[in-house]
Amino acid sequence: MHPDDMVRTKDSFYKCVTKSSHERIHARFKHANGNYVFLEVIIDPVLNDENIVTGVVFSSHDITKHKIMEKKLQISQEHFKSIFYQSPIATAIITMDQRFITVNQQFLNLTGYSQEDLQSLSILDIVHPEDVESNRSKMQLLINGDIEQHRTEKRYIRKNGEIVWVSLSVSLIHDEEGLPIHFMSMIEDITERKQIQEEMEASFQEIRILLSEIHHRVFNHLQLILKLVNVQLLNTEEKGMEINKINKNRLNAITLIHEKLSKSQDFAIIDFADYIICLKNHLIESYNINSDILKFEIETDNSLLDVDITIPCALILNELIIYRIIHAFPEDLEGKIIIKYSSDGGKINLNIIDNGIIIEDSEIKNNGLKLVDMLVKQLDGKLIVDDAETTEFRIEFLESVY
Q1: Which entry of 160, 214, 393, 402 is 20 to 30 Å from 94 by CA?
Q2: pLDDT at 71
């Protein structure tokens, strides 16, 4: 017999003799090959007619395989417990009627409850009311064997009342006979991910609304241009090719806004100083201007403009530059066009100054500047034409006009 089992065996033998008790022990005995084997030893007392123990009967059978399996099971259970309680993922074991058996520390951290708190609760007590019915139906599918695993996203209510979003994976654990005994749930906190998701969805919705509004604004301005084109077509004094070029440049002024918006982090804001430079470069190319003969100067304060203001401002700028290129600098007349843009205390100033042929203020009524007049009124601003020594168009309006 193994020395470690000797005392326990002697105690059982003594009880059998002194108390006439039936004893059963598990002990290790050395086999002839030198290895120890486990035996289950049964000790029964032998009694005479006076119920006095006169001897004992030993019977035994080999339980080594059983003990080996038992040891493996114990190691497996200890391994499972180690993984369960040290897992970085919140984990819970739940009865078939959805009450808590045990949970790990991560689950306690996630919900704010203690092990003692959870003993009096069911999983449904911490599930958000709107998610309870879905939880019940999915659990029933697991029990029925319709699904092997239940994965979902739901809300838990923490002990302090806060709502936490979780990603849940539930499996049904069976016994050796294949009967369901409990659920095991693995839970991941996805609250931060959900918040980001909701913010992105809200942002996408804002962008959709904004793009719809931009489309509406652009459509209105295109309609305005179309009306002006129809007026010009009725004026036989205007040359068809020239009208075509002017209208193409009007459309380009709007297209350029869309290009800038697509590259902007904010779909509603445009760097107007950058826009002015791009528009100027396009018009120089469109009218084949020799920059040594007609020079451009740009003075801006690098202001950012809302798209609602940018569209009319861009069309005004485009219209006035083209008007002065055509009428103030014929036949390669040397000169300079100065574009000034500034914003001060919510007031915006847009100035186009040139030293070309002077025009009279009455020309503002001509078809060539009708679009400018309409756009300035749309901005609820005012247009001042100064034709003293140079020609200056000065447009003033407030930044918030919509």
Answers
A1: 160
A2: 73
Q: How far apart are CA 45 and CA 56, in angstroms?
A: 4
pLDDT number for residue 367 = 46
Q: Which amino acid is at 171?
A: S
**Which of 189, 205, 240 lies at the terminal end of a domain, its last residue?**
189
- pLDDT in the model for residue 280: 92
Q: What is the pLDDT of residue 34?
A: 85
Give the pLDDT score at 75.
Answer: 59
Is the Cα torsion angle 257, 259, 264, 268 positive or negative in sign?
positive
| DSSP sequence for 234-293 | H-TTS-HHHHHHHHHHHHHHHHHHHHHHHT-SSTTEEEHHHHHHHHHHHHHHHTT--TTT
- No. of H helices and E strands in the chain? 11, 15
DSSP 370: H
Q: Please count the structural domains in the chain.
A: 3
Torsion of CA 56, 59, 65, 68, to 10 degrees: 0
Q: Give the CA angle between residues 69, 74, 182 to the nearest 5°.
A: 105
Q: Which residues of the chain have pLDDT under 70?
A: 72-80, 82-83, 203-204, 206-244, 247, 261-262, 264-268, 360-368, 400-402
CATH of the domain at 39: 3.30.450.20
Pairwise CA distance, residues 306 & 121, whole Å:
55
Query: Which of 146, 161, 189 finishes a domain?
Result: 189
Rounded Cα gap, residues 249 and 253, in angstroms: 6
Q: Residue 66 corresponds to which tokens in the numbers above?
A: 């059983």
Predicted local distance difference test score (pLDDT) of residue 232: 52
Report the alpha-carbon distance of residue 391 to residue 353 in Å, rounded. 6
Q: Is residue 81 part of a domain?
A: no
Contact status, residue 303 vs residue 342, Cβ threshold 8 Å? yes
Instruction: Measure the CA–CA gap between 148 and 133, rounded to whole angstroms.
Output: 19
Give me the domain span that covers residue 25.
3-67
